[in-house]
């Protein structure tokens, strides 16, 4: 058998859809699996514009291959994209895109490999729905239980012994923690189910930070932690979602206090640069080791299991900052402290 024939057989029998497009996005090859996944025969689709046929759009940004400026030898691996089928239905596909360059380095087209993950996504969605329904249903009993306990503690239901009061206070504290976990989880699952879409308006970030510092003082004073605020020149109004930005600031500030030992300090710095506002929250706390650092923004990741928390705060903060077009990152020296920074672009 000729080498070319062997290649053709291999490509046709790849367990993934395979299509080659030229530099204008016209399909020049399409394998058997791609025919099966999309319902188009090779004859029908070769010579047609792949953006329109497969991605159902003229918008290049919706296509992994043309919505991206590739560096040489770069590949986009396993991004999620919608692929239109011949019958008007669509599949959710995991697409790997590789550009092709000629020997002079000119872009001459590319390859897209795609795998149908529709069923996988459906199951994932279902699992998330069940979890968020579960969390939602847990919310009301916890609130009701806390209400009754507060009533008993207020003395309205008769006198309590010292021991009873102590126990009820402990139960109330635990229920508060549980309520916090449920609230974090519900917020997280809301962002996961629908995209985080900030409601943008003029936002005075300096005033917001000052307010959040005041709110955090109670806990900081309890641990004898000083909070400093430093701000460069005039900080202009930015455009952001006030409620969501509040969540980011509180999450970072609360963490800084939570992960700092008694007597330490927390410093918030606000820097006005050409293109964005930079917020930095530094603490003199326990720090984060190098092996934990890459994962702290992942959902449910928790460094210290013995501390209370959901492991969702930083993941929520990241979703919010990125939905504003900003970036968030952390630097840390174990035993010395951490600095969390985020940017919000000016418009
Ligand atoms: P958690 O509810 O556990 O605080 P987060 O998502 O807010 O969840 O943070 C994830 C992990 O990152 C934490 O469990 C902790 O190990 C680490 N972390 C976050 N902020 C700090 C900080 N300021 N100092 C040290 N570790 C931190």
From TrEMBL:
SUPFAM superfamilies: ATPase domain of HSP90 chaperone/DNA topoisomerase II/histidine kinase, Homodimeric domain of signal transducing histidine kinase, PYP-like sensor domain (PAS domain). Residues 3-61 form the PAS domain. It is an enzyme of class 2 (transferase). Its main location: membrane. One of its GO terms (molecular function) is phosphorelay response regulator activity. GO terms for cellular component: plasma membrane. It is found in: Cell membrane; Membrane. The lineage of its organism: unclassified sequences, metagenomes, ecological metagenomes. It comes from hot springs metagenome. This is histidine kinase. Gene3D superfamilies: 1.10.287.130, Histidine kinase-like ATPase, C-terminal domain, PAS domain. InterPro entries: BphY/WalK/GraS-like, HATPase_C_sf, HATPase_dom, His_kinase_dom, HisK_dim/P_dom, HisK_dim/P_sf, PAS, PAS-assoc_C. Its EC number is 2.7.13.3. It catalyses: ATP + protein L-histidine = ADP + protein N-phospho-L-histidine. Residues 77-129 form the PAC domain. Residues 133-347 form the Histidine kinase domain. Keywords: ATP-binding, Cell membrane, Kinase, Membrane, Nucleotide-binding, Phosphoprotein, Transferase, Transmembrane, Transmembrane helix, Two-component regulatory system. It is a multi-pass membrane protein. GO terms for biological process: osmosensory signaling via phosphorelay pathway.
